[in-house]
Design goal:
The complex is a heterotrimer of chains A (about 425), B (about 170) and C (about 575). Chain B is of the alpha/beta class and about 170 residues long. Chain B has 5 helices and 7 strands, in the order αβββαβαβαββα. Chain B has 2 domains: about 30 residues; about 130 residues, 3-Layer(aba) Sandwich (Glutaredoxin), CATH 3.40.30.10. Chain B has a 7-stranded mixed sheet with strand order 2-1-5-4-3-6-7. Chain B is elongated and about 80 Å long. Helix content of chain C is about 30%, strand content about 30%. In chain C, the strands form 7 sheets. Chain C has a 5-stranded antiparallel sheet with strand order 1-25-24-3-2. In chain C, strands 4-23-10-9 form a 4-stranded antiparallel sheet, with no helix packed on it. Chain C is elongated, with a radius of gyration of 41 Å. The N terminus of chain C is likely disordered. The chains are: A mainly alpha (about 425), B alpha/beta (about 170), C alpha+beta (about 575). Chain B: Its main location: other. Chain B: This is Alkyl hydroperoxide reductase. Chain B: It is found in: Cell envelope.
């Protein structure tokens, strides 16, 4: 059994590196057009095909990871954060493959493959062990609801890529007009958000490789009048503590860069044992994100949007708009069925009520309403093109918040297992 | 087509207003199903210590004070003498005070009632049916019900012995 | 009077067809009616194929204004966005309905401080039940009804009244256009082309030198099917609130007892409750050795009874008949005639149900016999051998109040105590008082012997002793079941299914039409679709290729924004 699980983990890692290779090959296909002594069109086609081949091979290996983990773990691997995010990355590749086969636009690979890579890396942040299913997850609805929801969301990811590409293609980066400047700034903000995610992953892995750990204890008195009990809980920080949990004591502190104790304590309204640690993680993410962004700016010597824009020259923006819309048109029914309807059926069977306004359910509804508004707005002439692209970018951010933010920040019945 | 179209429009808009109004009012008021001040007092069907079955209808036309209590609850015990005094005072003025015990054994209730010298009607709610239909959470809870069957006031926690007299007077006049 | 004169337009087309007022493109030949429109080269406005739409009339009266308000797509989008934003607010703090037993007026302030207090005061602690949220949903419902009614009929009329031969301008100003010479004679070309077009699933109508091909018209109804589904869904949700169609309560069922389900004529008995945990080996390495307990399964073996007589009389015992039996697990509720019981929670604290103590002579050890003492609702009088025991007092959870008097601290049988008056041979005439704690821990904690000695001015010659666990009846667990009735649910699912049908019809197929005409050896082709212009361009390029006309897909694009 564990031999199979080891094999599946290895498949995951190899698939990851294949995707990285595919990304580099797509970059060669697009950016190498200028420097190749061949006709740019055939250069793009040749390297584009090679890149697509590599990414498809990666997908096959990722599918192998998926099915071998299923066999080894005894249940479909979508029940905790690690498994779900890996599955999502796989579905994004599937969606990319479908859209690529329809439209054959090489440059889509340059933007879609990194999404898969980032999601896979993000998945690896979380505990990877196969965890047995608690009774409420022991249902075939688990397979159906979660997989379909991920499938729908993966098409939204492709729409995000195409929409972002549209913006990079059409926003006027050399203009100083007020409207254009606003668009430039927002494009830069999207870049920064992506960099935040990347730097979070890098930071976590860097400190994990160094084996960093600091421990705090927090004692809370609770109980009814006359009888107080005190409960002491421990929390382990895997990143150097800049902020300590509210009202806690240091049990062990590994110094970092001359920091030997936390700089400040979490405010009183963040009084859970894990709230301080999560706040610390956010602070670290922002700091490292700013550093990484700074480095990239130094290398590019201009805002990232302006640096990336030339690579999209020669692409018909209408095509990008079309791809973005089509991806949402394909994904929306799948999302409705998987994330809402099957979710309602499962909730009815498991908890006796098909809708309870649980934060996860509400945010799934919010995603649905958002894309519903998108589809209605497209009926109106003025909303196609630029506005649509902004919406498809924003929409995916809403989806990611639903998947990540709600689980980690807002509590409820719905949180996954193993999200420390 | 013109006139019939207008008729169709009006019918549809009316339907929407009716359904919409129904939706909003049911959500906003009493969505828990718990009775609130101003709503009708739920019926109860309980066996009294006198061996007879009592219902809410029995007390129609009289002002009714329904006190939910238990022997373990200190404030409930503390307010018993005051309730008894009020019962004696208002007995002939069409005011009834009724105690509903929350799920205890008959013996425990009988002993308690004897000990504290309570003579107003006391009923047993062993399955906590009345507790549920009245939406009782903390004990003691006292419902002041007007002679027409509507809930005049809901008092959570121990009764204010000084204002109890006043409250009953208000109830009679409501 | 002047207004009517100015509003009067010549709506008779060149081709001879008389169009209703408000028509944009002639119903017969498709030629634009307005002078300005004819001269422009812009892509045609193809909504409803250019037919007149009733609701855009002059002088809207009050009813019309409300109607138009709800019919507008822009307003619908606003309402969707407002609902979206409102929903977000409800996720900031846990809502009132997630708790079973708190007082909202204090909870939010205590747990979240000022922010919590503001949240509560604004009514956001029950966002989804607030009047403005429900109002938004009602308005969306109104919009669904009205916008669909307003559009379905004109669309139906536009699509069923199609003519084959269209004016050239109708074709050249579509978004997909091809113009070029053809070699064959026009009728022959049209015939050959229709073969290829039919192969692609189109329904083809020819008229000499013109052709109209159409496929997947049903896809246009997609959005309206979605709207109908949503309307049914919303109505079903509303119907759930009607009395008798809905129930939701949490009830505790101690093992082995038949308990009444409030507000129904049903009783349920928790025959046995089991919980299984994952063994150490099953847990991942990270969790092992940390005493982490992960439940694998919990189930209640339950029997459902229905009351057949004496149901509402509290002075009599109801007659029960067993009607259903089910092993209730999470994801597998009991379902009997619409009454459902879901596994919700459990409690493994054992609860004492009854004991069978023996009356024993302390000095000689002689056992006079046993009697059954029920913890809940015990009998008053017992006879054991020559002795009579009268139960004087019972305490569920024994304790002493501030005056040192015995009271019961809670209604739960956590520390039961009984006060007996024992009369019989070798005892004083007025009897001896005997305090009895069935649980050994309580006996020691409250010093039973000391109490009895104090009460009687000396030790009591008799005692009650439970000899062995065989004489103790415990309820090993209590299961918490969520009892629900939801008669409107089938309609909820019907509504949802119709929504899915509409989504699939509307998004996975597209309505495509091709018009072409050949005049003097020149082919003019125009095509229209409601979605996916890329796809129809590809298809037309393929068709033309079959007719030996090589075209680049992109060149078919005649501009205009794409949907």
């Amino acid at each position: 059994m564990s031999g199979l699980l080891n094999f599946s983990s290895n498949m995951f890692v190899v698939a990851f590196f294949l995707y990285c290779a595919a990304f580099i090959l797509f970059a060669v296909a697009i950016m190498g057009r200028r420097w190749s002594n061949r006709d740019p069109e055939s250069h793009r086609r040749k390297w584009g095909n090679i890149a697509f081949g590599v990414s498809s091979l990666g997908l096959v290996l990722e599918l192998t990871y998926f099915f071998t983990r299923w066999a080894g773990g005894g249940h479909i691997p979508v029940s905790n954060m690690y498994e779900f995010m890996s599955f999502l990355s796989m579905m994004v590749m599937v969606a990319f493959t479908v859209v690529y086969l329809i439209y054959r636009k090489t440059i889509l690979g340059l933007f879609a493959v990194p999404i898969t890579i980032i999601i896979m890396a993000y998945a690896a942040v979380f505990p990877q062990e196969v965890q047995p299913l608690i009774p409420s997850l022991q249902s075939y609805w688990l397979k159906i609801h979660v997989t379909m929801a991920a499938a729908g969301e993966s098409f939204f990811a492709i729409a995000f890529a195409a929409g972002f590409m549209y913006l990079l293609r059409t926003v006027n980066f050399s203009s100083t007009d007020k409207k254009d400047r606003r668009q430039q700034r927002w494009v830069e903000i999207v870049f920064f958000s992506i960099i935040l995610v990347i730097s979070f992953i890098i930071t976590v892995f860097a400190f994990r490789a160094a084996g960093y750990e600091s421990v705090f204890t927090q004692t809370k008195a609770s109980g009814t009048a006359g009888q107080t009990t005190s409960v002491t809980q421990t929390v382990e920080y895997k990143l150097p503590p800049i902020v300590a949990p509210y009202h806690s004591k240091v049990e062990s502190y590994q110094p970092f860069l001359g920091m030997t104790k936390p700089l400040f304590s979490a405010p009183s309204w963040m009084n859970g044992i894990n709230a301080g640690r999560k706040f610390n993680t956010i602070i670290w993410t922002v700091i490292s994100g700013i550093i990484l962004y700074g480095i990239l700016r130094l290398i590019a010597r201009k805002p990232l949007g302006r640096a990336a824009s030339p690579f999209l020259d020669g692409i018909d923006p209408d095509d990008l708009d079309e791809i973005s819309y089509r991806a949402i048109a394909i994904g929306f029914p799948i999302f409705t069925l998987g994330a809402l309807i099957f979710a309602m059926i499962w909730a009815q069977v498991a908890w006796g009520r098909f809708w309870g306004w649980d934060p996860k359910e509400v945010w799934a509804l919010i995603c649905w309403l958002f894309y519903s508004a998108y589809l209605h707005l497209r009926l109106s002439r003025g909303w196609q093109g630029r506005q649509s692209s902004w919406l498809s970018v924003l929409g995916f951010l809403v989806v990611m918040f639903t998947l990540v933010g709600v689980n980690l920040v807002i509590a409820g019945l719905h949180s996954y297992a193993g999200t420390n | 087509m013109g006139k019939s179209r207008k008729k169709v429009q009006i019918i549809i808009l009316l339907l929407i207003v009716i359904l919409g109004g129904y939706a909003i009012t049911t959500q906003v008021s009493g969505s828990n199903g718990k009775p609130t001040e101003g709503s009708k007092a739920p019926n109860f069907d309980l066996l009294g210590l006198d061996g007879k079955v009592h219902t809410l209808d029995e007390y129609k036309g009289k002002a009714l004070v329904v006190n939910f209590w238990g022997t373990w609850c200190e404030p409930c015990v503390k307010e018993m003498p005051a309730l008894q005094a009020q019962y004696d005072k208002w007995k002939d003025k069409d005011v009834v005070i009724v105690g509903i015990n929350a799920g205890e054994d008959k013996m425990a209730v009988e002993n308690f009632v004897k000990q504290v010298h309570v003579s107003f009607p006391v009923m047993l709610d062993p399955e906590k049916d009345a507790i549920q239909s009245y939406g009782i959470s903390p004990l003691p809870t006292t419902f002041f019900v007007s002679p027409n069957g509507k809930i005049n006031k809901i008092h959570l926690g121990q009764l204010d012995l000084q204002t109890l007299d006043q409250q009953i007077e208000e109830l009679v006049n409501s | 009077m002047m207004k009517e004169v100015i509003a009067f337009k010549n709506t008779k087309c060149e081709c001879g067809h008389q169009n209703p007022v408000g028509t944009v493109l002639c119903e017969a030949c498709g030629r634009p009616l307005e002078e300005q429109d004819r001269e422009s080269n812009e892509v045609l406005e193809m909504r409803y194929d250019g037919m007149a739409r009733r609701s855009q009339r002059a002088n809207p009266n009050f009813i019309d204004r409300i109607w138009n308000f709800f019919s507008s797509v822009k307003i619908a989008v606003y309402m969707i966005i407002l609902t979206l934003l409102g929903s977000m607010l409800g996720t900031i703090f846990p809502q009132e309905n997630t708790f079973l037993n708190i007082d909202p007026s204090t909870y939010y302030k205590e747990t979240y401080g000022t922010a919590g207090w503001i949240y509560y005061k604004l009514g956001l602690s029950h966002t989804y039940e607030s009047w403005w949220f429900v109002l938004l949903l009602v308005m969306i419902g109104a919009s669904l009804v009205i916008c669909s009614l307003d559009r379905v009929l004109p669309l139906y009329k536009a699509l069923t009244k199609q003519r084959i031969l269209k004016h050239k301008q109708f074709l050249t100003r579509q978004r997909v256009v091809y113009q070029g010479p053809v070699e064959l004679e026009s009728k022959e070309w049209v015939e050959q082309a229709s073969v290829h077009i039919k192969k692609r699933g189109y329904r083809v109508h020819t008229l000499d030198n013109a052709l109209l091909a159409e496929k997947y018209r049903f896809s246009r109804w997609g959005p309206y099917v979605i709207h109908i589904g949503l309307i049914i869904f919303l109505l079903a949700v509303l119907a759930r609130g009607l009395p008798g169609l809905h129930m939701d309560q949490h009830v505790a069922f101690p093992e082995g007892e038949i308990k009444h389900i409030p507000n129904t004529s049903y009783y349920l008995k928790n025959e046995k409750f089991t919980v299984e945990y994952y063994s150490e080996q099953d847990l991942p390495k990270e969790f092992q050795g940390k005493n982490k307990v992960l439940p694998k399964l919990f189930k209640t073996q339950a029997t459902l009874y229905e009351c057949t007589a004496n149901c509402n009389d509290p002075s009599k015992q109801p007659t029960l008949k067993a009607v259903d039996h089910h092993n209730i697990e999470v994801n597998d509720p009991m379902d009997y005639k619409g009454l459902k019981a879901y596994q919700f929670d459990y409690d493994l604290t054992p609860v004492l149900r009854s004991v069978k103590p023996s009356l024993v002579d302390k000095k000689t050890g002689k056992d006079y016999g046993t009697f059954q003492l029920k913890i809940k609702d015990p009998e008053r009088n017992y006879k054991v051998g020559p002795y009579s025991l009268e139960l004087k007092e019972k305490y569920n959870d024994f304790g002493l109040d501030e005056n040192g008097q015995p009271v019961t601290k809670t209604p739960n049988p956590n520390a039961p105590a009984f006060l007996f008056l024992i009369k019989g041979p070798n005892l004083p005439a007025e009897g001896v008082h005997y305090f009895y704690f069935p649980k050994q821990v309580d006996k020691e904690r409250f010093q039973q012997d000391a109490i009895n000695a104090k009460m009687n001015g000396g030790s009591v010659p008799l005692e009650l002793d439970v000899k062995g666990m065989g004489n103790v009846d415990l309820s090993m667990s209590t299961t918490y079941l969520n009892i629900r009735v939801d008669k409107a649910m089938p309609f909820v699912w019907v509504g949802a299914a119709i929504v899915m049908l509409g989504l699939v019809l509307g998004f996975y197929w597209q309505h495509r039409r091709i018009w072409l005409r050949i005049d003097d050896g020149n082919l003019t082709l125009g095509a229209h679709t409601n979605k996916n212009w890329f796809g129809i361009r590809r298809e037309i390029a393929a068709i033309l290729r079959k007719m030996n006309l090589e075209v680049d897909e992109k060149s078919l694009d005649n501009g205009g924004n794409h949907s």
